[in-house]
Amino acid sequence: MLRTLPFPVGVGLRMVGPLAGTDAVIAGPTFERLAEIGGDIALDMTGVTRLDTMGLTRLLVLAAELRGRGRLTLIGVRPCFLPLFEQVNARGLSRHLFLVAS
């Protein structure tokens, strides 16, 4: 089960567990709240153990909702998740979504 913890500085969350399947659906309202807050948002993905297309979609939607109001930085993205990001046509989100691999 995905757990979210407060981020030590600024606006963001530390995620622990899978961001996949039903856990990605459950994370939806949390991501929607972050989009409402706006500004620059950081998500620490160091503790994310699994990422599928549903989880990736949640991240891309959050980045899209921040357009013109902020950007999304993903910290600690595991190298094994990078191909998922490469497979998605993220054109147009590049200025709003930043990956920091672990």
Structure summarized in a few sentences:
The protein is α/β, with parallel strands linked by helices and 102 residues long.
Describe this protein's structure.
- This protein starts with a strand and ends with a strand.
- Helix 1 runs parallel beside helix 2.
- The protein has one domain: Transcription Regulator spoIIAA (2-Layer Sandwich).
- The model has no long low-confidence stretch (mean pLDDT 85).
- Helices cover 35% and strands 34% of the residues.
- The protein is built from 3 helices and 5 strands; from the N terminus they run ββαβαβαβ.
- The protein is an alpha/beta fold.
- It has a 5-stranded mixed sheet with strand order 1-2-3-4-5, with helices on one face.
- The longest helix has 17 residues, at 21-37.
Number of strands: 5
Helix content: 25-40%
Q: Main sheet?
A: 5 strands, mixed
Low-confidence segments, given as residue ranges, are: none
What is the alpha-carbon Rg in Å?
12 Å
CATH topology: Transcription Regulator spoIIAA
Intertermini distance: 22 Å
Number of helices: 3
CATH superfamily: STAS domain
Can you write the helix and strand succession as a string? EEHEHEHE
Strand percentage lies at: 25-35%
Q: How many structural units, i.e. domains?
A: 1
Judged by helices, strands and strand pairing, the structural class is alpha/beta
Which word captures the global form? globular
The CATH C-level name is Alpha Beta
Task: Identify the CATH architecture.
Answer: 2-Layer Sandwich
> Average pLDDT value?
85
Strands of the widest sheet, in order across it, are: 1-2-3-4-5
